[in-house]
Each structure stands twice: as structure tokens, then as C-alpha cells.
Amino acid sequence: MTINYTDNFLRQLKKSNVQIRKTFKQRLLLFVENPNDLEFNNHPLQREYVGFRSIDITADYRAVYREVIQKDDTYIYFISLGTHHQLYER
Q: CA-to-CA distance for 31 and 85, rounded, in angstroms?
């Protein structure tokens, strides 16, 4: 599995508080081991996010990503990070 981040995602991560950044790093390690762990509530998204998936970082924070499978590797592209409200209720 190869993890990539968009510039937008990195800006959002940098703007988030220290605890969110720390929690994201911890969750990412677990995600790499088992992205389908029930703890992540990993699920496909709808509407403007069709083709993307979301995982829980905290009770309110989500990370949105796209999964691309090519040959023998899976590429994860994290595109957005924020609260449920910030991401979905615009």
C-alpha cells in the first residue's frame, strides 16, 4: 500500500490542532495494517464524493480518500480532512 496526500489535505492537516494531527498519524498506522477495521467506519461516499471513501479519525473528524489499485499495489490518495460538518454540509 502506498499512501499519498494532496496539497489540500496537507494544508488541512497543518491547520488542524496538534491533537488531531497526532491522532491522524496514529490512525494511519492502523489503517495501513487493516483499512477495513470496523473502528474506522470505512465507507464509500455519495454525491460530490462518489468514488471516494471516508474513515473516522475522531468521533467528528473524517479523512476522505480515493483508493486506486494498479498491478500489484494499492494507492491511497488522501484528499480532504475535517469535521463531518466541514466536509459534507456545505
A: 23
CATH class of 2-88: alpha beta
| Residue 52 three-state SS | coil
| pLDDT for residue 86 | 85
Each domain of the chain, given as residue ranges in start order, spans 2-88
Listed in sequence order, the residues at least 6 apart from 12 whose beta carbon sits closer than 8 Å to its beta carbon are: 80, 81, 82
CB atoms near residue 16 (< 10 Å): 18
Q: What is the pLDDT of residues 31-41, one digit of tens each?
A: 999 988 888 98
pTM: 0.89
